[in-house]
Structure to design on (290 residues):
C-alpha cells in the first residue's frame, strides 16, 4: 500500500489492536477503539472509557505499561476467508497519557465521538486519553496470490 | 466467561493477533491464523506459511523475537457496533519454534489444515511452526451494559 492508502485503511477501521510491554518486558495486546488525527504528522488517539471493573483493571495495566514503556505497536487489519484479500497496517509509535485539559485531549475526544456514536453518551471527556505519535507505518496487502 | 467458554471462543475464531517483543524490548503485533489444540493443557499453534517477501521478512522478525523473548500474548476478540456484544480472550504464554520432524509439528500442521482449508494447498509442512504453551487465559464479555 502507499502511505496514503495505509492511512486511509487505518482511518476507516472500527477496531485495532494495541500491543504494550509490561514492567517485566512481556507483551500484552488488547482490542481498542481509536481515531487517527492529522495527515502530515498523524497521531492515534484512544479513550479510557468507563467499563466494568475487570476492564478497568486491564486499562490501568495499559496505562502503567505505557508509562514504563512508551513504545507501542498497533495493528489494523482485514481478515477474509479469501486470503487474496488479506491486508494489514502496522503502526509503531510513542504513546503517552494525556489528562483532561492538556494539549490534544479535547481534539481526541471530539474525534473519538465523531467516529463512534457510542462514545457520545459516555463520560470519556473526564478521563485521560492515550495519544500515540511519531508513527512508523508498515503495511501489506495480498494481491490475489 | 468461564474457562471452558473462553477456550470455545478462542477455538472458533478465524483470526487472532499475536504480540511479541523485539530485541530492543519494543512490542510488535500481527494478525495470525492459529489453531488451539488440547483441553487440559491447551496449546496454540501457528504456521509460518509461504508469503510474498515483505511478509516473509515480518515472519522472520516474529521468529527472531520469539527466540529472544519467548513470552508472547495473543488476543482473540469480537467487535460489534453494539458494544454490549464486545468480548475478548487474552492468552499469555511461552512460545517456541518447532521444526518439521520435531514433537508437535505434525499435530500442528494437521490441526491448521483441518481448521483452514486454505492451508491444504500450501507447503506449510516443510516449514517450522510456532507453538505457544503454558497458557494463562483472561477474558471479558460485555453483558448488555
Amino acid at each position: 500500500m502507499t502511505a496514503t492508502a495505509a492511512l486511509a485503511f487505518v482511518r476507516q477501521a472500527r477496531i485495532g489492536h494495541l500491543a504494550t510491554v509490561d514492567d517485566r518486558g512481556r507483551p500484552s495486546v488488547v482490542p481498542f477503539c481509536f481515531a487517527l488525527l492529522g495527515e502530515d504528522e498523524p497521531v492515534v488517539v484512544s479513550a479510557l472509557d468507563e467499563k466494568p471493573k475487570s476492564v478497568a483493571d486491564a486499562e490501568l495495566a495499559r496505562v502503567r505499561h505505557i508509562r514504563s514503556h512508551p513504545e507501542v505497536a498497533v495493528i489494523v487489519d482485514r481478515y477474509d476467508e479469501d486470503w487474496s484479500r488479506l491486508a494489514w497496517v502496522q503502526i509503531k509509535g510513542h504513546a503517552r497519557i494525556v489528562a483532561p485539559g492538556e494539549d490534544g485531549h479535547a481534539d481526541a475526544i471530539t474525534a473519538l465521538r465523531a467516529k463512534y456514536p457510542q462514545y457520545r453518551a459516555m463520560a470519556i471527556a473526564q478521563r485521560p486519553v492515550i495519544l500515540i505519535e511519531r508513527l512508523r507505518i508498515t503495511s501489506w496487502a495480498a494481491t490475489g496470490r
